[in-house]
Each structure stands twice: as C-alpha cells, then as structure tokens.
Specification:
Blueprint (H helix, E strand, L loop, with lengths): L2 E6 L5 H13 L4 E2 L1 H4 L6 H10 L1 E8 L1 H4 L2 H13 L4 E6 L7 H6 L6 E2 L8 H10 L5 E2 L2 E2 L6 H14 L2 H38 L5 H27 L14 H32 L2 H17 L3 H12 L1
C-alpha cells in the first residue's frame, strides 16, 4: 500500500485535519490529504479513487460539516464499495447525530470519538489497526478477533436455532436497500458533477462543440436524477424510505433553468441571424441561422423555430 491513511474531511474542518496530519506525521504514519497530494493538471476524481485503493486506513473525519459535504460522502461510498483489504475508521469530531444514511452504511464499523481519543492519541489507535488489521474494519465490516472453537460452535448453534424466515427476510430487505441506496447516491453524485461540468463549459467561449457538450451534460444530469427518483419510488412505502432523503428537486430546477436559458438565447440568436440573412442573403448567414435553430431545438421542441427552419431550408 502506498499510504497508511487516506484522510477524508470537509474543507470547513481544515484546522482539525491539519492537526491530525501533524500528529500522524510525528508518529511516522504516512497519509494522503487532497490539498497536498494532487498536482496541477491531474484528474481530481481519478487521483482520489486510486489513492483510496492504495491506502490501508480510510479515516473519515465525521462532523456536521462532513455530513453536509457531497465530496466526503462520495469518497466514503467509494471506500465502502471498493476497499477490500483496508479499514474504514470514522473519527467523530462533534455530537451532531450522524445522518441515517451514513449510520446505515457504518452501523457495523467501530467508531472513535475525539472526546475519548484526542488527536494526540489518534496515531496510537491507527498504529494498532495497522499492526493488527484483524481488530480493525475491512470493507466497511467489523472484523472480530478469533474466539475459541467451543465458543464459536456454541454461537453458531444458537444462531441457527434462532434464525427464522422473518429474520432472513429483514436481512435481505436491508441488503437490498443498501444496494439501492448506493446506486441512488451514485446517480445523484453523477448529476451534480454533470451540472458542474455544464457550468464550466458555459464559462468557455461559445463554440459548436462546447454548446453541444453543455446541453448533453445538463440532459445527462436530468437522466441521472430520473434514475435516482425511480429507485426512491421503489422504497416509497417501506421502512427504508428515510435513506433516500437527498433533495433532487433542486438539481432538476438547476438543470432545467440552465437549459431554458440556453434555449431562449439560441432562439433569439436564430431570429436575429434570420433578420441579417433576409437583408444580406448570405450563404454563411443562412447556415448560421440553421445552426442556431439546431441548438435551440436540441434542447426542446419549438413550433415557431421548426417553421422557420422549414422556411430557410426550402430556399
């Protein structure tokens, strides 16, 4: 493994993260923190994903701030889904109740509280996990120490005796809900990223390529939200509905608002270009009209633009 610790935190907790880094460094424990480990020009999400894979401990600095961070949640979901030989260690910084969706993910993971284990003692806790991985958590699941065979056999016998169809059904239901929740959050993260990408493209000079990419990103975001909402609908009437609480309406409003603005802008460009075309009868201006109409219609139908397109094409 390249790093002992991957540090996942909210930017609002930077001071606390710096203190943890200082403590780890003093203890000779290698770590990755995104503000130091990523060079200019590198693919940010790709670097984070590969670094989580290359770290032995995923240290989640859990706080009110991190619970509200979409990036922290995305990192945790990736670690939960992909870490198979590493440990997830939530370090609880304050008394803010952990959101139900995260508690659902981390229910079987050992939590460490700053109130009981201050930053100065955290390296000892992590060193213990590094030296004895069987006492840590693997792939988001608690790893128990080895017990005497008689105790194990006794527990197995009790468990088999107590197992009922109802318990099995509940376990299966929870497992299915967890899988659905992971997909639900993945779709929402994708939608959020696509909207951010569209905003970045919107800041670039308007060209045919950037306009088409911007429209595709916004439409892609709406498609991802639709996938998330379809998963939420499956659980609308069961006990797991509280997991699917992310507000997707704001994402839809944002994407649709930007698409409407683009549609209005390109519609206006088309009409202005048509006025110039009527005055000049220029072939280039005619093509410009058709391009503007094409952009507008790629966003949504518009009968008046369809009619204008037919008029121009017939000439």
């Amino acid at each position: 493994m390249k790093y002992d610790v991957f540090l996942s935190y909210s930017r609002k907790d930077s001071a606390k993260a710096d203190a943890v880094c200082e403590a780890l460094s003093g203890a000779g424990i290698s770590f990755f923190i995104d503000k130091e480990g990523i060079s200019a020009g590198e693919n940010f999400p790709e670097v984070l994903a590969s670094t989580i894979d290359e770290s032995r401990v995923f240290l989640l600095m859990a706080s009110r701030n991190s619970y509200q961070s979409k990036f922290t949640k995305a990192e945790l979901l990736y670690a939960f889904n992909h870490m198979r030989s590493g440990c997830i260690l939530p370090y609880i910084l304050d008394d803010t109740p952990m959101p139900q969706d995260l508690e659902f993910l981390l229910g079987n993971v050992n939590w460490v509280y700053e109130s009981k284990c201050p930053v100065s003692q955290l390296p000892d806790k992590i060193r213990h996990i590094l030296d004895s991985p069987e006492t840590g958590t693997i792939g988001g699941r608690k790893v128990r120490s080895k017990w005497p065979l008689r105790v194990v056999l006794g527990l197995v016998a009790v468990a088999l005796f107590a197992l009922t169809a109802t318990m099995f059904s509940q376990r299966s239901s929870k497992s299915a809900a967890l899988a659905d929740y992971q997909n639900y959050e993945r779709y929402i993260c994708r939608a959020d990223s696509l909207i951010d990408s569209a905003a970045l493209l919107g800041s670039l000079p308007n060209t045919l390529e950037t306009t088409c990419d911007q429209i595709a990103a916004l439409k892609g975001a709406l498609a991802e939200v639709q996938k998330a909402d379809s998963i939420k609908a499956i659980h609308a009437s069961d006990e797991h509905i509280a997991l699917f609480s992310t507000n997707t309406e704001s994402l839809v409003r944002c994407a649709e608002s930007r698409l409407d603005s683009m549609h209005t802008a390109w519609s206006n460009y088309a009409r202005e270009s048509y006025s110039l075309y009527k005055a000049t009868r220029s072939a280039s201006e005619r093509q410009n009209v058709l391009d503007c109409i094409g952009h507008a219609l790629s966003i949504k139908p518009n009968p008046s633009l369809e009619s204008l397109k037919q008029t121009i094409s017939a000439k």
